[in-house]
Prior knowledge:
Elements: H1 9-39, H2 44-54, H3 60-76, H4 81-86, H5 92-113, H6 124-148, H7 182-230, E1 233-238, H8 243-255, E2 260-262, H9 270-279, E3 287-291, H10 299-306, E4 311-314, H11 322-325, H12 328-335, H13 337-344, E5 348-352, H14 358-367, E6 372-375, E7 381-389, E8 392-399, E9 402-408, H15 414-428, H16 433-441, E10 451-455, E11 458-464, H17 470-483, E12 490-494, H18 504-518, E13 521-525, H19 531-540, E14 546-550, H20 553-563, E15 569-573, H21 578-581
Parallel strand pairs: 1-3, 1-4, 2-3, 4-5, 5-6, 11-15, 12-13, 12-15, 13-14
Antiparallel strand pairs: 7-8, 8-9, 10-11
Helix pairs in contact: 1-5, 1-6, 1-7, 2-7, 3-5, 3-7, 6-7, 7-9, 8-15, 8-16, 10-13, 17-18, 18-19
Amino acid sequence: MIDITTINPVVGTTAAAMVLAVLWFVTSRGAALMMFFQQEEYDNIRFVAWLKDKRAYDKVASLWLIAATILTAVLQSDLSASLRAETSILPLLPLSLFAVGVVAGVWRSRATVKDNKKPLVRTDRVKRIFRLYVLLAMTALALSFWLASFAPVGSSYSVSLNENAASWLDSFEFLSLSHDWRFAAIVILLVGLFQFLPFLIISANKLLEPYEERVKAGFRAEAVEKFNELAPKVVAITGSFGKTSTKHILAHILEAAAPTLATPGSVNTEMGITRVIREQLTKDHQFFIVEMGAYGPGSIARLCLLTPPDVALITAVGAAHYERFKTIETVAKAKFEIAEAVFKKGGTAIISTDGIPEEHLKERTEAVPGSYLRVGTGGDLRTKDYKVTADGIVLTVMDGTEEHTVSAPLYGHHQAENILMAAATARALGLPWSAIKGALATVPQIRFRLEVSRNNDAPTLINDAYNSNPVGFAAALECLDILVKPQGRRILVTPGMVELGSLHAAEHQRLGGLAAKHADIVCVVTPDRIPSFLNGLEADNDGTTTVMTFSCQEDAETWVKANWRPEDAVLFENNLPDLYEAAVEF
């Protein structure tokens, strides 16, 4: 039995140092994990899938700690008795390995978050989750030390203070680990703790869910009260793709007629919209354009309860986010929740006949009857002709029997449909064609969505970092042919697309074939993710396309910038978040 009153101060100091070291490790690793957890939108299930896919379990620190355990076992043997008698430094070796493991683990954690594209944003929610995570880790740490106290201890073992010790180092003679397995037990339990840290974040998030729901409910109630008081005319937009670009174009058109607020960027969730209402919506805004994202059946219906639409748009039903819905039929049902909501208010649903598969368009419009304005082939508004030039897109639009020519400094054939949808909405809201044409002529380019930058002394850059879906990808490839200068090369940089589910391989195979036809140099980022894209490139490559592979976007961009020429056109198609690209080496 150990008498705590006789424990050498070095023992207490060592134990305290171990605790502080572990807490240092826990906080550093927690910050790294929290960054990815935030990017997964605090979704426990998706975070577990990411952990499994990236194998984001601790390796380095745990291996060093296991080595410390093995060394401890060696020191328990009779063979080491003579060595222990001759030196007091030997018991320090397991502690040294333990220290190296902790430092290496912290270094790995910080290296993972360094220079990431989307660093951790320390929101109030993140702070709450992180604090509870640390508290859970401290509880687990205390439990580990308590459980280790039950490890076998030889009857001859004792700890006492040597008042005649020549130096503090000699006091380690009394920390002899002979027949004492408590240090080994602590280390093994800490290895388990290190492996379990991601699940402590998940546990903290789960425990906080009731509180977070109350916080959200409070913000939502405040937003609803303000929205009902101001009562702007709401235009709600959803779609598998094209919704953000259509929103951008429509906002520019409506702003020319009356003060207009649109949800910024890709904000399309309940809390994102709630925040925009609370912080930006004013009594001056006559139009409020709300982008609505579908993250599962029922999500759009819930958003429509927050901002009931007067006019609703469905830009497309397709493969984007197919992973979440599994079937196109499920996607269609989710998108048409917006039509149900607008009809309850006596409004109009504007739908794309070209962006929605015919069978789903027929089935959904019959299942959800109401006032539809069809845009596209066979619709009330349709494109008679269009062309993409070096100066942008030019469309000939048929509005019934009327013919109108409109132009916009935007690129990609898919923008023809987005422009048509925006124009149809403006017409439904009462704007004349003269105002629509004037606004379209000056519409600014859409940030990171086929955004073209040109300079006489530099390559033409096509930034499509935020717009990667099968339709947009194909349209962007065609822009390389239009925007490359004489004698220039068409260069593509892409990591492929995400969230295509079972369509992942087939769509990448098809687009790989298109890339071989429209690009002279293809820089493939994270090739292990998209082997079918490489297969498509190889199958349709006639020997004129050079294919290069890179492990991350930064390396590909560095190579391109070092080798491009002023005559070239360079397309950056998609830019993966850290979830998909970052090398997680814990």
